[in-house]
Amino acid sequence: MEENRPVDDDLQRLREERLRELEARIQGAPGGVIEVVDDTFQETVRKHPSLVVDVWAEWCGPCRMVAPAIEDLARDFAGRVTFGKCNVDQNPTIAASFSITAIPTLLFFANGMLVDRVVGALPKEAIKARVMRAFGTG
After folding, report:
1. Could you list the residue range(s) of the whole structural domain that residue 36 is in?
2. pLDDT tens digits in sequence order for the chain, 138 residues long
3. Active site residue: 36, 55, 60, 74, which one?
4. What does the radius of gyration of the chain's CA atoms come to, in whole angstroms?
5. Which of 28, 33, 90, 101 is the most buried (most CB within 10 A)?
6. How many domains does the chain have?
7. Catalytic annotation on 86?
C-alpha cells in the first residue's frame, strides 16, 4: 500500500485545486459570470458600470443555447464588462421591473441605466457586437 501514497497525494492536490477553481467561479472571479438576484439587483447594477444580464430559465432551450456564448464573452471582456445570469423563475421582481415576457432576454446596463435589450437567442458574434455598441469597447 505504501507505493500508492504519492498517487493519493496527487489526487488530493488535484481535488483541492479543482475545488478552488469552482469556488472562484461561483464568487464571480474575473471572467466569470455572476448571479443576479432580486435582493441585490440594485447593488449589482451600481457596482458594475458595464453589465450584461442574461435573463433565463432552466426549462428554456434557447436559453441553454445562449449560455456558452455568455460564458465565452465574460472571459473575452473580463475586466471591462461584467456578465450576469438572472433566473427568471427565482427572481420575479427583476422580471416584472423590466417587463420580461420572453426569454432569453439580455439587459445591458451602463452606469446603472438600461441602454439596450435583446430578446431571443442570438449567436455569440451578434451578442458581442451589441456589447461593443452598448459599452464602446472592443
Report:
1. 31-135
2. 455 566 788 888 877 776 666 555 554 445 689 999 999 999 999 999 999 999 999 999 999 999 999 999 999 999 999 999 999 999 999 999 999 999 999 999 999 999 999 999 999 999 999 999 999 865
3. 60
4. 18
5. 33
6. 2
7. no
Type of residue at 132: M
Amino acid identity, position 2: E
Note the pLDDT tens digit of each residue in 103-136. 999 999 999 999 999 999 999 999 999 999 999 8
Q: For residue 72, with 0-12 CB atoms within 10 Å meaning exposed, 13-18 middle and 19 or more buried, which class applies?
A: middle
Same-domain check for residues 46 and 97: yes
Task: Write down the catalytic residue from 52, 53, 63, 74.
Answer: 63
40 plus 23 within the same structural domain? no
Q: How many residues are present in the chain?
A: 138
pTM (two decimals): 0.77
